[in-house]
Structure prediction request, 232 residues.
Amino acid sequence: MRMLLLLPLLLTSISLGQNASGIQDGSLVVVLNFKYFKSRQTILNQGSPVMPPAPDMSVAKKNDLRNPLPQATIGVIDPNTQTTDGRAAALEKNVQEARSPKSTPVDGYAYLAKIRNAHTQNIEIVFWEYQFKEVSNPTNVIRRQFLCGVKIKPGKERELQAFSVLGPGDVISVGSLTEKYGNLFEEKVVINRVEYADGSIMQRKDWNFAEMKSSIERAIRTPWGTEMCRSL
Prediction:
């Protein structure tokens, strides 16, 4: 997909001094609803599995296919595994299994935000954040920021889905700890930057792209799979 191909070029193709139109509340990107919840995601460790080459079919195997046995005898060694091709295939399989990425279950949080593209151009890249403002201490605002490669046509809606091991807040005030009723946080989703198919950019005035450079580099360092968004 084109928007995913654009992500590795993000830092080199966009000048950090480039002017971007400001995003105003309720303007070109409309946040319809949002939520977060605890989740578990399976993460693939880095690696590039390679399929082993198929061995040539031996004469014995061809004969077996023409004259199949009614039932295999337990404990009998398949003669095909003793051929050069068979031994090579077994060795290659062991090597590839050792190199193949292993999946690891990770506990964290899922962040969702449904948005609508109110512009006349296709959206291709979205920077957004999920904010938590502590009710008993409004100066404590926690931000979970995400980068998404997602195509949204004009007038269409799309739910952004992101995962992070970080939750609402690591440090909260004593007042929140003693609060018995009500929510600990006020929640809000903010769109920081949107990049469109025609090359135009809309960016929130008090959000600095340059300050996020190292986080963006980390997010796009490895190839993207099927995920829509990555945490910054």
Remarks:
- The radius of gyration is 26 Å.
- The beta strands are 21-22, 29-44, 103-117, 123-134, 141-152, 157-164, 185-196, 201-203, 229-231.
- Confidence is low (pLDDT under 50) at residues 1-6, 8-19, 47-77.
